[in-house]
Amino acid sequence: MANHYIRLGAENVVIAAFSDAFQKPEPLDIMIAQDAGRHCTLKVRADDGGYRYRWDPRSKKLVERTADEIEPLADLKDRVKADTIERAKRRLRKTDFKVLQHLEETAAGITPTMSAEDFQTMVQKRKVIRDELAQFEQAVDAAADRAAVNAIAKP
Q1: Same domain membership, residue 44 and residue 21
Q2: For residue range 73-112, what is the model confidence (pLDDT) as tens digits?
Q3: Nearest-angstrom CA–CA distance, 53 and 50
């Protein structure tokens, strides 16, 4: 039978869990189960990638971290905004070539490939994307809690 251990990072966050059947424990590793089997199945990462547990040295127990401990509200807001900004940029990049082509043709005195009306329609659609992004960012910044941020972020 093997013993199971955890390894701690900053603020007693559990960053690894393993069995001594496969890995030799270091001096600061903490044994959490004796004669427990070859495989340690403790999942130390939450679904969003953050570390799921911290070690409570008083009770000598694993404590599940809250969502705010795993990813503070400010970090969640930053991540949600960054993801949405990237999606908006991808949408804008789809028409970048047409915008540049029209502007270059106009500047060179060449008859533009795109009509003035089509160009204005495209410019307006691009403005709508930017305006929606600005409104989204304001809403995320104003959100008071994780539930509000998640509700705003859902497509």
Answers
A1: yes
A2: 999 999 999 999 999 999 999 999 999 999 999 999 999 9
A3: 9
Cα–Cα separations (whole angstroms), residue 149 to 40, 88, 117, 142? 35, 18, 38, 9
User: Is there a single domain that holds both residue 32 and residue 96?
Assistant: no
Number of domains in the chain: 2
The pLDDT tens digits for 40-76 are: 999 999 887 889 999 999 999 999 999 889 999 999 9
What is this structure's pTM? 0.69
111 and 77 in a single domain? The answer is: yes
Ramachandran quadrant class, 107 (left: phi over 0; alpha: psi -120 to 50; beta: rest): alpha
Indicate the DSSP class of residue 10.
G
Say yes or no: 89 and 129 in one domain.
yes
Closest by Cα among 142, 4, 1 to 73:
142
Query: What letter represents residue 103's amino acid?
Result: L
Side chain identity at 143, as an amino acid letter? A
**Which among 17, 45, 70 is the end of a domain?**
70
The residue type of 70 is I
- Identify the domain containing residue 29 by its residue range: 4-70
